[in-house]
């Protein structure tokens, strides 16, 4: 695989990128695959019509109009888009999370994921059988031994940070998925023999991006439609419809504490800020500046902001799939309830202190997290919703293991109604 840096295309078309995007797409997600000429979230007949308009000079070219990446926009791009629609393309060009423009030979029939979230995404796409090796992190993970046990039987190729490149070349998958910040160096070492894509999947938005791009690469478009239409969008729409008209006064203040220790929280740049808002709350430290997502505050500031709800993340070792006893999560909750300095805080006085497993974060199962949070914040609005039942649905449908009944593990404490 060769990484293609389309300097000339970037130079001539980047200035036209935003002006050429239809109004709706300018603020919404745009699928970063060449051929998505109208810059929406899919490649379809509308892109053929858009390219025809570019050729006729009635539409301005966008960065992705040059579907075959040859530096010109012509009939061959229309033919490439038609091949993509028909799943008969010989090559696909896309932009990964490392902002690299990458050519991938098609079809892709074997994959190696190095980061655990990528393995979960392959599960959602129903592509576990295409996985031919995994990192040691996935192979030895208690989570994956429980929900996707077949992965632990595959060859290991070193850690996600320091993969065994020699072993990867022996296995020679069609596609290697790495963390975005490692993509450039790994590609420099083996990219001429193995296609390398970098993804981060550390937020709901980047997870969606990886799901959609891989659905094209792995020919799993129907499966990804099922995930979004029947799970992701279905439950997020339920939440949105019930909380979007709440006034500011009806949105409880929420202090979210990380598993790193007391008073380690999240600043305004974090995903947590967005998730609290989506769940119908107000992040207590919505205005907190800082690099990255995390920040340290003092107890006095928490007292001053007086949150109505406190959510504390538990370490994976204290929660999750292999845990049947919530004792460690109960201990975490009691520690917060017992902090003398927080005795007058609304959340402590009302007992609205909740513990959530770090296993539920920002991956493909984050709608489950949001349902728990929404029900904690607005129990009357979500009285009919059973987040655990929906979590079982996710695991059964998208991880390939029957969790309809039986022991699930410990993910939240207390469970509530």
Derived from helix and strand composition plus strand pairing, the structural class reads: alpha/beta
Round the mean pLDDT to the nearest integer and report it: 90
Do you know the CATH topology of the largest domain? Answer: Rossmann fold
What's the architecture of the largest domain in CATH terms? 3-Layer(aba) Sandwich
The percent range for strand residues is 5-15%
Describe the structure.
The chain is an alpha/beta fold and 417 residues long. It folds into 3 domains: 1-95, no CATH class; 105-219, Nitrogenase molybdenum iron protein domain (Rossmann fold, 3-Layer(aba) Sandwich); 240-413, Rossmann fold. 40% of the residues lie in helices and 12% in strands. The chain contains 17 helices and 12 strands. The strands form 4 sheets. It has a 5-stranded mixed β-sheet, with helices on both faces. The chain is globular, with a radius of gyration of 23 Å.
Task: Summarize, please.
This protein is α/β, with parallel strands linked by helices and 417 residues long. It is 40% helix and 12% strand.
Labels describing this entry:
Rossmann fold; 40% helix; globular; alpha/beta; disordered N terminus; 17 helices; 3 domains; 417 residues
Helices, strands, pairings?
Blueprint: H1 7-20, H2 23-27, H3 45-55, H4 75-86, E1 91-95, E2 101-105, E3 111-113, H5 116-124, H6 136-139, H7 142-147, H8 165-171, E4 175-179, H9 183-190, E5 195-199, H10 204-217, H11 221-243, E6 253-257, E7 264-266, H12 271-278, E8 282-283, E9 294-296, H13 299-305, E10 309-314, H14 327-337, H15 346-350, E11 353-357, H16 366-377, H17 387-398, E12 412-413
Parallel strand pairs: 3-4, 4-5, 6-8, 6-10, 10-11
Antiparallel strand pairs: 1-2, 7-9, 11-12
Helix pairs in contact: 3-4, 5-10, 10-11, 11-16, 16-17
